[in-house]
Amino acid sequence: xxxxxxxxxxxxxxxxxxxxxxxxxxxxxxxxxxxxxxxxxxxxxxxxxxxxxxxxxxxxxxxxxxxxxxxxxxxxxxxxx
Length: 81
Fold this sequence. Notes:
This protein has one domain: HSP40/DNAj peptide-binding domain, CATH 2.60.260. The chain is built from 1 helix and 6 strands. It has one helix spanning 60-72, and strands at 3-9, 12-18, 27-30, 36-37, 42-43, 46-49. The longest helix is centred in the C-terminal third of the chain and has 13 residues, at 60-72.
């Protein structure tokens, strides 16, 4: 569904807009927002990798909602897109 996430960076907070459908393991780059390279007098890039976390346990109503979502949106990742 997407999200806006604030992250700590080397010089303060950075805002990342995560697009809908982003998969776990996707990386985003903040060009020039990383740590300084003192030899070249420039800054590196700041990289962020998305890790999707799901709850270990959900209540019965939530489980039914997830089941309904699965019925309405079949997805088989090993069959390709």
